Please model this.
Amino acid sequence: MKKERNRQGLQKRLIIVWIALAVIMATAITVTSVSVLSSQIRREREESVIGAAKLAANAVDGNCIDGWLENGKDGKYTETFESLKDILNNTPNLKYLYIYQIREDGCHVVFDTDPEEPGALADIQEFDESFKPMLPDLMAGKEIDLIESDDSFGWLITKYVPIFNYEGKCVAYAGADISMDEIKDYTRSYVLLIVAIAAVFLTACVIIGLRMHINTNRAGELELLKEQQQRDKQLIREIIESFAKVIDMKDSYTQGHSMRVAKYTKMLAQELGYDEETCEQYYNIALMHDIGKVSIPDSVLNKPGKLTDEEFNTIKSHTVRGSDVLNNISLMPDIIVGAESHHERPDGKGYPKGLKEGEIPRVAQIIAVADTFDAMYSDRPYRSRMNYDKAINIIQEASGTQLTKDVVDAFMRIAERGEFRAPDDVGGGSTEDISNIHKNQE
Model:
């Protein structure tokens, strides 16, 4: 009797340890993900405001500044002003862009592109108290570090770049202010999402821990144990499918994408001869391949127009962000490789690591084919799916360069049997190339 009580006490302690580890894992995922998100956004904004200020400085002829302040506007002034407005309008989240000449009595306005309250040429702006410690360096024509402020103008990061005339004298500064206010909203919504995901995983861990405790007490009931293991697998699959729906909800252009890619991935794995357990594992990994998109700002992810290079690089970062989110999930250690490597290419031109052929994890090779096909052969709010035969031909043409050859061969065998064709496809669809499927494959 005492031995039995000791055994039950040990099992309870193991369950407590299991739950504690799950809580630690969930907390680690949340803290790490939020830290990565905040650092990524801050780094992107800092690079963006520095670039905008440098572009503005290069757009202004320093030899004309004194003349404009003394004699007024001319044709070159108007042309320069339009160039500055283009920089403001084409830099995401850039709030203010201006050219000031710094004198003892204040900031003399050369250009001010503020659409609401622009300063007029030669207006004088008084120095703020926070600005005065930097005056010695500014008066000396030095380039100063980034300035961060949070006042009535909002949370801003500011960059000043000096403008020189032909004598090498600093005659003005290009100033750029980029907004950081959205970071709070991004962080808040991202924390809620990660907490929800972590809570579901925690629930799954608790349930599995309790089931393990129950099944241990029924060691003699082998058939029941197998049935319970199957139910646990089903539970994990349903949880991951729920995550996939959350991911697709984030991107208004790709509803159902993760589920379809997972379905195609399993079909390809079966065609390649993998056992049912591996096929099921690959299905689950494929469901989470785009989880990194939950940390991409909505303004970039759901932008209806053409992406800038900076915005496209932000989209591409979803592979690294996804691996950061999934990195600490010990319950399914292989789940990270699908998120991290599904945009790698056999020819080494993929991202994020530029892996080649056999360096790319097998499941990522399979997901890449499934992902590429679904990107072409699915309806979006802004265009119809590509013609089925054309999509198949593009997959075949990408064999060995953008996509792994034997996976494409398996894809073609399934396609010849018509198993990829949608039930409502009667031969229509766009025959034009869809340039925004995988920009890296253009």
